[in-house]
């Protein structure tokens, strides 16, 4: 009889790649709460899935795609080498660390770390997220124009990912950046659209609703619509009661203080600022506490309580020196300069305004730099130096024009018009008045205007 060759069973090669694939498949299946039989059904047996998880067989691309889809994972997730998987986890952890730094005091650090990650990133989804993080940090630092450039890239990439949540976050930060660059009406329309979407959603999102109401209140205040601003802030206050967001309460109370100040009710404004200050202690937000001390200094100065004004602004500067962000310090120095100017101490006022201008330049805070030039202009005008006063106002106008802060730009042109009129330059005064008319008008807020 012819001999039949015996079938030789070869051992499965010891492949670290196969074991890694199997381990990732098992981990994803366990996290999804599926059995091996459930994962394979209806096309593959439990034994087949087990063999793949043990690294005994290499699944075909189609079978891996089937199981990956059941686990809501990209196929590439299971095909990565162990080193690549570890690198991916490390980068994901680094991304979470950047997100955790997105706050006023640590925005500069978040921006730096996000930029480092971006330099090595090749994933469109990751790049979109990093650009969003960078834009968020820039918004905290009052760098709205730069934030818009990051957001344009993020939006373009996110649209191809069909990630609705990411797109919504990009739209929100775009609205914030538009407000910072003086595009208040565009910002308002975007925030209203986002609020409509939140209200129409099947699942409630109270934190987002509160955030949108607060920002709509801020824009209404920027546009001089004090009653509308108050309405938005009060609505935000009602919704915040259900979510226990102490940090959110701080900005709501701050907004209500601004609205009452706009009505001329300084007692109520002070009361809300004190409430906000108390909430910062619970939220452990020293950076916002500095902003509130600065606001209290402004109101105290308006009421003629100069000792209290100096005490609050010195406290704001001291806190900001330690906790940051450095970009806010020039605003507080401007407040101190204005306090000195109010009591006729021109030399002290000039020292602090000059220091504000210098620190604003080093932190790239054009808004604070422009405000410093206005204070220096007031000092020069008080000293009878009309040409010097005009020069400082021209510098302020250039700063506001660069960041598209049209409300402030219009006010500066009006100041230039009045100066020209006082000096008997009628045609020049008329020219500046026309420029002021063309610029968008809004509330002053030259000192202390931070988000």
Your description of this structure?
With 451 residues, the protein is mainly alpha-helical. Among the domains are: 16-81, Orthogonal Bundle (434 Repressor (Amino-terminal Domain)); 316-451, Tetratricopeptide repeat domain (Serine Threonine Protein Phosphatase 5, Tetratricopeptide repeat), CATH 1.25.40.10. It has helices spanning 16-32, 36-40, 46-53, 61-70, 75-79, 82-100, 107-119, 124-140, 144-159, 164-180, 184-200, 206-222, 226-240, 246-263, 266-283, 286-302, 306-323, 329-342, 346-362, 366-382, 386-402, 406-422, 426-438. Helix 18 (329-342) runs antiparallel to helix 19. The radius of gyration is 29 Å and the shape is elongated.
Structural descriptors:
disordered N terminus; mainly alpha; disordered C terminus; 23 helices; Serine Threonine Protein Phosphatase 5, Tetratricopeptide repeat; 76% helix; 451 residues; 434 Repressor (Amino-terminal Domain); elongated; single chain
- The H-and-E topology, N to C, reads as HHHHHHHHHHHHHHHHHHHHHHH
What is the CATH topology descriptor of the domain at 316-451?
Answer: Serine Threonine Protein Phosphatase 5, Tetratricopeptide repeat
**Poorly predicted parts:** 1-14, 442-451
Structural classification: mainly alpha
Shape: elongated
Please give the number of β-strands.
Answer: 0
- Helical content, roughly? over 70%
Within CATH, the superfamily of the domain at 316-451 carries the name Tetratricopeptide repeat domain
Mean pLDDT: 88
Any guess at the CATH architecture of the domain at 316-451?
Alpha Horseshoe
C-alpha termini separation: 94 Å
Cα-atom Rg, whole angstroms?
A: 29 Å
Strand content: under 5%
Major pleated sheet: none
Helical run tally: 23
**CATH class (first level) name of the domain at 316-451:** Mainly Alpha
């Amino acid at each position: 009889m012819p001999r039949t060759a015996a079938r030789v069973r070869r051992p499965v090669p010891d492949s670290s790649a196969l074991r890694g694939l199997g381990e990732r498949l098992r981990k994803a299946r366990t996290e999804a709460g599926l059995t091996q039989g459930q994962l394979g059904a209806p096309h593959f047996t439990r034994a087949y899935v087990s063999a793949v998880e043990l690294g005994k067989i290499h699944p075909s691309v189609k079978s891996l795609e089937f199981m990956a889809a059941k686990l809501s994972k990209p196929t590439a997730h299971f095909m990565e080498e162990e080193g690549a998987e570890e690198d991916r986890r490390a980068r994901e952890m680094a991304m979470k660390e950047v997100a955790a730094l997105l706050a006023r005091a640590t925005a500069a650090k978040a921006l730096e770390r996000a930029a480092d990650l971006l330099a090595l990133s090749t994933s469109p989804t990751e790049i979109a997220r990093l650009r969003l993080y960078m834009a968020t940090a820039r918004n905290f630092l009052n760098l709205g124009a730069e934030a818009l450039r990051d957001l344009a890239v993020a939006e373009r990439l996110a649209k191809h990912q069909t990630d609705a949540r990411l797109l919504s976050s990009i739209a929100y930060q775009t609205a914030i950046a538009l407000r910072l660059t003086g595009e208040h009406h565009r910002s308002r329309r975007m925030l209203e659209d986002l609020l409509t979407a939140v209200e129409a959603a099947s699942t409630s999102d109270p934190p987002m609703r509160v955030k949108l109401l607060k920002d709509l209140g801020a824009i209404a205040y920027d546009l001089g619509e004090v009653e509308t601003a108050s309405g938005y802030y009060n609505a935000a206050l009602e919704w915040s009661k259900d979510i226990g967001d102490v940090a959110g309460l701080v900005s709501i109370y701050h907004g209500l203080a601004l609205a009452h100040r706009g009505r001329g009710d300084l007692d109520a404004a002070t009361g809300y600022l004190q409430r906000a200050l108390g909430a910062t202690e619970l939220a452990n937000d020293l950076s916002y506490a500095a902003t509130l001390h600065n606001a209290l200094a402004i109101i105290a100065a308006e009421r003629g309580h100069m000792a209290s004004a100096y005490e609050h602004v010195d406290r704001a500067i001291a806190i900001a020196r330690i906790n940051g962000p450095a970009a806010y310090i020039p605003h507080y120095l401007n407040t101190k300069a204005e306090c000195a100017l109010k009591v006729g101490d021109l030399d002290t006022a000039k020292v602090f305004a000059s220091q504000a201008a210098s620190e604003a330049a080093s932190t790239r805070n054009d808004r604070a730099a422009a405000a410093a030039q206005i204070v220096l202009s007031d000092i020069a005008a008080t000293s009878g130096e009309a040409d010097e006063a005009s020069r400082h106002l021209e510098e302020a106008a250039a700063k506001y024009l660069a960041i598209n802060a049209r409300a402030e730009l219009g006010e500066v042109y009006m100041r230039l018009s009045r100066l020209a009129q006082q000096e008997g330059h009628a045609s020049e005064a008329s020219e500046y008045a026309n420029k002021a008319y063309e610029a968008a008008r809004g509330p002053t807020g030259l000192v202390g205007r931070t988000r």
